[in-house]
Every structure is written in structure tokens, then in C-alpha cells.
Task: inverse folding
């Protein structure tokens, strides 16, 4: 079974055949008058983190990537559950977990530990409380909206290449845009976090919204302008990508990088149509 | 780091140093006037399921073991999130997932898929709504209480040994005691599900409650009386173990298997003290 078919089958089970990429969308459920946001992400050794990654950084990243999904929903985190495969460096894992929970003032609600040989896998479920109604998703972009991104792209790439350099922490210990997500949620038409590269995630947002997105590459803030193309395709930055009516003032700092227009090729970069086959980012 | 130390460190992060076995306790959070129950369990190929297990049965079990944790809290399930490692038999996995979600009328709220070589790992988070206040846990057993168990123990063991026999489904597709859990929650003093063997889980309940539990082995319902000792130690039955004032009538069918008494050796079987070092069940 192809991955896309599997995800489509899961999405159908989830009651939403249109949710082509189930794993990228946090779930929203109504309960007791609150709207809860739930997200689950898995990290695999050698795939999402390096074989020799410091387990403290793995713990940080495991929680942070889930919080980033909550940020994209404008949710306040309530807590996390962790699935941990026991092994080398568990002391460091606990240290990193303590650090990230403390940084975001978050309780560890529970979890599970397993013992097994071989490649290690970690899971995390984060629960949050929506702060806006409706809760933003990637499907609401409208023709005429402006397209924005927070922060600077490519920092994680540079941090991956030079762990001890200026951008090392951006790769090892990403900081989810929680405050920005809450501030933006009431005014955006669509929002998602950038985990797999700006172009790929732009393409997903455009496709989910049934619109075209036109980007101007030279205005997109990148950490290394000499390597702009890579910065637009590298993942792990965990910035927020969003669309909003172009005349609206923004409550947070962000850069306008393009415009939403009527249906057509989903993504244009400097006027040239791109598709997912062009290697827009990191598919995993 | 020893597993016990790791779990203690996690439990300390979870704000409950007394929660010696974090992974066995579903979390309870208050939100919007509801009490939510959250549980996360991981299945590892070759550890919790056989190398050649039908992926449809893996999907069923993944969801069912989490629902069993909700049952022990007297919770009504709200939905599940799944972490799935792509691989052989994904069609079958989807079929099993469809079957278990349909059986328990449960939405798939979301999840994550990953691609990786090597041993496969699956994670599931289940969310439920408490139906009683307080929510039962394993710490409330009191001297004088009666100890009960639902169903018959050892069925999963026999089903594991003879997959096509009478008890095959008990191993491959366990049925969580959701209705029983909800009915029992208002009257029990302590409750948990039996995932790792009756004796081990009895010992955990006794220890968590700071009491002694005295069991009479001949009254414990087992699927094969000739192999009573094994039936009491084999896991995967997902029955409910609970304590309640001995004079109280029960709202569901269950067997009285012993009595709670004052502190002392935590667990007595036919008058003989047992400790966890005696191989009470399945530690993983």
C-alpha cells in the first residue's frame, strides 16, 4: 500500500476524505463547552533525529514539534503524554523533558515506556485548548489574501550543519510559536506550521484551500541568502505560515511573502508554477 | 539508567513522585467542567505482538488496550489518535482499525505516519470522559474491602497458544470492559485493568493502596484449571480488577477472589506472601 493511499484510508476512517494528509492536522473536538486540540507526532531515530542526537535534544524536539502543531491552531497547551523506548541516555532524555516542560510551563500527563532492541521511536500527544472560534486550519485561504510567514527560514538547516554555531539551537531545540499562534488565530483565514519546508507546506496550504499561492522569493526572510533555494525547502523551522486579508494589521511580527489568487496551479514561485514533484521539501 | 529509575524520574516530572508506574495510570485532567481521561500505549513488534501478527489484529489490539485503560477509569471513550509506522500489511492494518473503531463507535481523531526500516512500533492515545466523581484509581483499596475480578483469566494465554481455537479471539482481539467500568466506577474503592497478569497487577494495586491483598487461588476463575498458576500470571486478558466494600451489591458480573487487609506483605496467595521478585506476571 502506498503511503498516500494509507493516509487517505486513515483520513476516510477519520470521517474526512478531504484530509489528504491526516498526520499534519491536529484534531479539534468539542467537550464540555471547550474546543480541545489534539496532536500526535512520532520521531524515529535516524529519520527525524540523528543517530547520535543528544537524547535531551530529542526530548525537547518531541514536545516542541507537537506544541508547534498546537500553535498553528492558536491553542494554549494543556499537557503532553510521552511514549518512550528505553535505551542509552535516558538520564539525558529526562533532563531534556524537564527543560522543555519547564520552558513551556507544561505538565507531563502520562505516557508509556517500552523496552525493545533496534531503532528507537518516540511518540508524543499534546493536548491544547482553543482560544479562537473557529479554530484555524489550512483550508481557509481566499483569493486576495496576503501570505505571511513568521521568523527566518533555513535556521534549522544551518544549525543542523553546524551544531555548535549560531543556529545550532534552532535545529536542536526549536521554539514553537505559541504566543504568535494565539494572537493570530482570530484574524487568519488559514494557518499551519512549517515542519517540512516552506514551499512544500505552502503547496499543501494552497491545495487544501483550493487556491493558488504566488510567492516572491526575494522577500522571503532566509538565514543564508546565498542558499535561498535550500532555505525554502529545508524543514524543521517550525515557523507559522498563514494567510489573512491583505489590509488587516497583524498583531505579531511576520513577513508578507506572497498573495493568494484564484484556482490554477497551486503554487507559483517568482511566476513559475511548482508542483510537489519538484522536490518542494522534506517528505517523511 | 534502570527502567524503574526512568519511570520514577518521569513520574516526578508528572508531579507525582508516588506514581511509581507512570505508564499504567491514565491521566485525569479537568477541562471545561469535564474530567478528561487520557492514556497512551505503545505496541512493539516482537515484544507486545508477534513478528507475524496479522496487522488487522495489531490495529485492534492497539486501540483495545487503550480503551481498557479508559474502562478502568469508568470513562466513556471520545476518540483515539494513532501513530503508525508504514510497512507490510498496511491494508490489513486499516481493516482492523476500521473494525475496532466501528465496534466501539469511536472516531479516529488524528495521528501520524512514519517510514523507517527495522522493528515496527505503533502508538495510540485514547481520550475519554469520566462518568464518576472521583475517578477510580489503584490507590484506594481499604482494609475490609472485597477484591473482585471480571471474566475468566488465562483466555489470552490459551488463545496465544492456539490462535484458531476457542480462545483465539481473546488474544487477538481483546474486548475492553467499557460498560462494566462505567457501571463499577461509582462504587469501587480502587480499580485497574489486568494487562500484565492478575498476580502482578494485584500486587501493584496492593502496593499503591498501602494495603495487603489476600487471594484464594481456587476461587479465581481460570480458563484452564490444570494450569491455574500460569493463568494467574499471563497478561493480555484486559479484565477489570477492583476492590469495593464487601457488603455492596455489584452492578455487573464479577467474582470475589480475595480480601483487602491491613498493611503487611502486599500480596498473599493461599496464605503465602508473594513479592514481585517471584515472577508474578509480565514485566515489559
Result:
Amino acid at each position: 500500500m502506498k503511503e498516500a493511499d494509507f493516509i487517505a484510508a486513515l483520513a476516510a476512517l477519520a470521517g474526512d476524505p478531504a484530509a489528504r494528509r491526516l498526520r499534519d492536522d491536529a484534531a479539534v473536538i468539542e467537550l464540555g463547552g471547550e474546543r480541545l486540540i489534539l496532536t500526535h507526532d512520532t520521531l524515529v531515530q535516524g529519520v527525524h533525529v540523528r543517530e547520535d542526537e543528544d537524547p535531551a535534544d530529542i526530548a525537547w524536539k518531541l514536545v516542541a514539534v507537537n506544541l508547534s502543531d498546537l500553535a498553528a491552531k492558536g491553542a494554549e497547551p494543556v499537557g503532553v503524554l510521552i511514549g518512550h523506548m528505553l535505551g542509552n541516555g535516558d538520564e539525558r532524555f529526562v533532563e531534556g523533558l524537564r527543560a522543555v516542560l519547564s520552558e513551556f510551563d507544561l505538565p507531563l500527563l502520562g505516557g508509556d515506556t517500552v523496552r525493545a532492541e533496534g531503532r528507537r521511536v518516540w511518540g508524543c500527544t499534546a493536548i491544547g485548548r482553543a482560544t479562537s472560534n473557529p479554530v484555524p486550519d489550512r483550508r481557509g485561504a481566499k483569493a486576495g489574501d496576503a501570505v505571511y510567514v513568521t521568523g527566518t527560514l533555513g535556521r534549522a538547516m544551518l544549525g543542523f550543519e553546524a551544531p555548535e554555531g549560531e543556529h545550532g539551537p534552532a535545529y536542536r531545540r526549536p521554539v514553537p510559536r505559541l504566543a504568535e499562534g494565539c494572537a493570530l488565530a482570530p484574524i487568519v483565514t488559514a494557518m499551519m506550521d512549517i515542519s517540512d519546508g516552506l514551499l512544500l507546506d505552502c503547496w499543501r496550504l494552497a491545495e487544501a484551500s483550493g487556491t493558488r499561492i504566488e510567492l516572491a522569493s526575494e522577500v522571503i526572510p532566509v538565514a543564508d541568502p546565498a542558499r535561498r533555494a535550500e532555505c525554502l525547502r529545508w524543514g524543521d523551522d517550525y515557523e507559522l505560515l498563514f494567510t489573512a486579508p491583505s489590509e488587516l494589521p497583524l498583531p505579531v511580527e511576520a513577513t508578507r511573502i506572497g498573495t493568494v489568487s484564484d484556482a490554477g496551479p497551486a503554487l507559483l514561485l517568482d511566476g513559475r508554477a511548482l508542483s510537489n514533484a519538484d522536490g518542494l521539501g522534506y517528505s517523511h
Q: What stands out?
A: The two ends of chain A are 16 Å apart (CA to CA).
